[in-house]
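Narrative of activities, Objective 1.

The group set out to show that a structural description can be obtained from nothing but a protein's sequence at a throughput compatible with the screening campaign. Below is one input-output pair from the validation batch, recorded exactly as produced.
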Amino acid sequence: MQNVTIYTTKYCPYCIRAKQLLESKGAAFNEIAVDRNPELRQQMIQKAKRTSVPQIWIGEQHIGGCDDLYALERSGQLANLLKK
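Output recorded for this entry:
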């Protein structure tokens, strides 16, 4: 199973939904909370070129946010990405 990294904030409903989907797939993930941590938020922005959370990586591939993750699930591609 691929390493999954997800940048989140504690009360973000999209972060919660993304984590729920990953958990339902049996994917372990490294959660990086950017609440009250400007350095980690800046790191996320530099890597993702986006300011919103969540930002998700599967392996070295940047997936994007929650909507992007669910789009992969709907297309049937998420399971394959997680298995690589």
